[in-house]
Design brief:
Layout lengths: L1 H17 L5 H13 L5 H18 L3 E3 L4 E14 L7 E14 L4 E8 L5 E12 L2 E9 L4 H4 L12 H6 L13 E13 L4 E10 L15 E8 L5 E9 L1 E4 L4 E16 L2 E12 L2 E15 L3 E11 L8 E12 L4 E12 L8 E9 L1
Antiparallel strand pairs: 1-2, 2-3, 2-18, 3-4, 4-5, 5-6, 6-7, 7-8, 8-9, 9-10, 10-12, 11-12, 12-13, 13-14, 14-15, 15-16, 16-17, 17-18
Length: 371
């Protein structure tokens, strides 16, 4: 009887660990039945129910309806900015407020729809994907362009509150000539992975064709279609090396005209244990203006899964034909993870210009909730 009870408890522990929300009531019924037949003690029953609840909270984010056909999630980030410059008031702001709907309809079909509510509501991602095999998936709609490791990293997974200067300038973000497109565009792309080893693929690729004028527009603003691609190389499971390119035209200026908008870059990210190392270099041409920049950063969990310290060097040259046009930012930061959903971050940005040094350092604090 004792061995049977031990086996029963073990099997129940496994099923509660990997069960989903729809199975919770079945688990409770089974536990109650075993308790009624005196196969487990009341203490053991309470322990199993508590374990099922804890594991469900720990491992699941969002709400799933059906067999993954509809998954509801979201991201909230509220931020405080303190400026060294006396003429800029310190402020609280809503950094991101996002609602995400996505799902897997079958082994082949999937979709995502994400909406951002800060300032004014806008659609970020709206796409449909069809997966033929691991080596080929087609995606059509509006989504992130495959350029820059930091650009394609989810906002909730960044180790710093803000992205780097060169990524903001060359990947369709805050300071790009085509405006802040959140790194996204409308188009179609193919992606996949090749050469599988024991536990990972050695190569993955993404190649897409885009309008080139950003998000939430009815049609292209010129006759040219832009091409972007990324090749990921994984010599070992912990290391990713990325090669990126973008070839296109931007329609901007007063009056608006078509200008060359080309980019190339490479990046690397290495994660081992509690340590992560990331570096990226990108360069681009907007019309006749040549730009480039790079960053290197490291982050380390001094308390595993709880407290992470991070440091970053960020250099950007907005016009390589003009002397002393670069800006350097030294950032120190810390991230505290309350659990899988909640994170508190602080960053201090020491900003240094190549010419006259301005008192423009910034302190930032951000509370994040993702579900």
């Amino acid at each position: 009887m004792k061995s049977f009870r031990t086996l029963t408890i073990l099997l129940l522990s496994i099923t509660t660990l990997y069960g989903n929300l729809s199975q919770a009531q079945q688990h409770d019924n089974l536990i109650n039945l075993l308790l009624k037949k005196n196969l487990i003690t009341p203490k053991e029953a309470d322990s199993l129910k508590k374990e099922a609840t804890t594991n469900g909270q720990k491992d699941k984010q969002g709400i799933t309806i059906g067999n993954n056909a509809l998954q509801l999630g979201g991201l909230l980030q509220t931020e405080y900015q303190g400026f060294e410059q006396t003429n800029i008031p310190n402020t609280f702001l809503l950094h991101r407020a996002r609602l995400i709907l996505k799902g897997v309809i079958s082994d082949n079909w999937s979709y995502e729809l994400s909406t951002e509510f800060t300032n004014s509501p806008k659609i970020f991602d709206a796409y449909i994907s069809y997966k033929f095999a691991d080596y080929l998936k087609l995606t059509a709609g509006q989504f992130k362009t495959p350029f820059s490791q930091e650009n394609i990293t989810s906002d909730s997974q960044l180790e710093f509150i803000d992205r780097s200067q060169v990524v903001n300038a060359l990947a369709g973000r805050q300071t790009d000539v085509i405006g802040n497109q959140q790194g996204r565009d409308a188009g179609i792309q193919a992606s996949g992975s090749f050469i599988k080893t024991d536990n990972h693929y050695l190569l993955d690729y993404t190649l897409g064709v885009f309008n080139g004028n950003g998000i939430n527009v009815a049609s292209d603003n010129n006759a040219h279609k832009d091409i972007a691609g990324r090749l990921g190389i994984h010599p070992i499971n912990e290391l990713t090396i990325g090669l990126n390119f973008y070839s296109g035209q931007g329609n901007y200026g007063t009056p608006a005209q078509n200008y060359t908008r080309n980019r190339t870059g490479f990046d690397a990210r290495y994660i081992v244990g509690n340590l992560s190392l990331t570096a990226e270099y990108d360069k681009g041409t907007d019309g006749a203006i040549k730009k480039d920049g790079w960053y290197a950063q490291t982050a380390y969990f001094v308390i595993p899964k709880k407290l992470q310290l991070a440091a970053k060097y960020d250099n950007y040259n907005a016009n390589k034909d003009i002397a002393n046009s670069s800006t350097r930012i030294y950032t120190g930061g810390a991230n505290y993870f309350f659990n899988n959903w909640a994170k508190f971050s602080i960053n201090y940005l020491d900003r240094r210009e190549a010419t006259i040094q301005l008192p423009n350092n910034i302190f930032e604090a951000q509370l994040q909730l993702v579900f």
